[in-house]
Amino acid sequence: MGINIWRHAGFLKEMTAAEAMSILGVFALKRSSIDTNYRMLVRANHPDSGGSDYLSQKVNEARELLLRNMK
Length: 71
Fold this sequence. Notes:
mainly alpha, Helix Hairpins, J_dom_sf, mitochondrion, mitochondrion inner membrane
């Protein structure tokens, strides 16, 4: 199934690091890549810009999980 399982079956109940990396489109735990992709996705999915609350929450959750895993 791989890390892109959420594309076919929805999001997992509890987000994994692999899912978080897939959501943010990063292939390594590099702070610069995480932050750059996070900012791009937040702008594209922010509810004030017509985006989805749910997707914004998932993007935030993905960033938080990956940053926690870096420590």
